Amino acid sequence: MHQNVTTTMDTGPVSRTGAAFRTVLTRDADELARNLTDWEQCYDQMTAGSFRGALTELRMPRTQVFREEISQSVRQSCTVRPGALWFGFPDHGDGTRINGRPMEDGCVMVRPGGGEFELLTPSRHAIHGIVVCRETLARAALRSGCGVDWDGLRSAEVLRVDPDERLACVRAIASALALCQGPERALPAGGEDGLLAALLGVLDRSGVEPAAALSFQRRRRVVARVRDYILAHRDRPLTVPELCAQAHVSRRTLQYCFEDVLGMSPTLYLRRLRLNGVRRQLLDPGARPRPIGAVAADWGFGSFSQFSSDYRKLFGESPSASRA
Hints:
Keywords: DNA-binding, Transcription, Transcription regulation
Protein name: Transcriptional regulator, AraC family
GO molecular function: DNA-binding transcription factor activity; sequence-specific DNA binding
CATH superfamily of the largest domain: Jelly Rolls
CATH class of the largest domain: Mainly Beta
Number of domains: 2
CATH architecture of the largest domain: Sandwich
Strand content: 15-25%
InterPro entries: AraC_XylS_family_regulators, Homeodomain-like_sf, HTH_AraC, HTH_AraC-typ_CS
Domain HTH araC/xylS-type: 224-324
């Protein structure tokens, strides 16, 4: 049994320009989600075992860079601040999905700010990210003469990029984070400009992946409709036939939609979603104290013994240990 301890180290300003650096170590997926500055996020743990998460983040006046490491597979609901663009560089594409679309090694994920998107990341996942104000990036591109497909970026999810430029950008992000962890805790002069230049090198030789096929978009809508229904009726047991009726699809089609978009069955997803909901409620310090059985019932669990067993298998600890 372990405690769900979160360690945050915020070193404050690391340069005269007001940049700030922090690291976060946590044993709870949702706690990791809440610690990425200026993001609205919710993480659901999908694979069984104790969770370990680490975040290293550098915030500068115009850009934000970070590296995130996660031990278990996680479904992430994410929203970047309005007016910004996010670019994600996973160490490995295998098992990573953005809005249901599988990633390939060597690609870059991108989403504009102000709109929700979904990531499904595998176990032992690590990613470098950079967030930049769109106007800042546009001015930098104009100064450098870099050609950026702005219309494509508005709707893009995946970019195919030059591997050397991608590697250079990842190294620039990693170097900036490492410098802030070093003894001087400072970026060199022009460090932020160097990061923007590295990102523009990626974008100058990138191609936007075509939009998902209409058939896949339909499957994605089915999954979203079922998820909304599950959350709206979280306090009672739901059956697969009921979910099929709500989505207006056959049992086989529902199964195929979930496996294609999320890589798991609808019953497994339902169970994981509800167990994460219970955990989130148990760990909420502002929630009114209630018996664990009552919280489990709120999420549709009728048998406390079965719930407790499933909970322990997924999170590696008992519900009472989580609350403690």
